[in-house]
Design goal:
With 110 residues, the chain is mainly alpha-helical. It has 2 helices and no strands. The protein has helices at residues 10-21, 63-75.
Length: 110
């Protein structure tokens, strides 16, 4: 399963996700242009997921790091396993740091 978001022009977003779509035919492909708030589903009363996480900022992910993620992913006993890779920077980093409550906009090398 992959959750993807591209903040920018629709055509550029389609080009950015094309390599992922080319990997395999998905069971369901729900990636489509949508307003930003729509990427977050409504909360379900009584739903309380249990999760653990690790967070870090990096300018690039080398092969060794990807292999380590995959190894941990494969050996995990969690009911649902996930790895999130989020790209920061770009247009969201072009506003002053104190303009919004969104942190870490400039923690990327681009």
């Amino acid at each position: 399963m992959a959750l993807m978001a591209y903040a920018g022009e629709t055509d550029a977003g389609q080009r950015a996700i094309a390599p992922f779509r080319a990997l395999v035919t998905p069971i369901a492909d729900m990636v489509r242009p949508m307003p930003y708030p729509e990427i977050y589903p409504p909360e379900q009363p009584g739903f309380h997921p249990i999760a653990t996480s690790s967070t870090m900022f990096v300018d690039e992910i080398e092969r060794q790091g990807i292999e380590r993620m995959l190894e941990r992913f494969e050996t995990s006993t969690a009911m649902m396993r996930a790895v999130q890779i989020r790209v920061l920077g770009g247009a969201m980093a072009r506003v002053p740091d104190d303009a919004t409550s969104f942190a870490h906009r400039t923690d990327a090398s681009w």
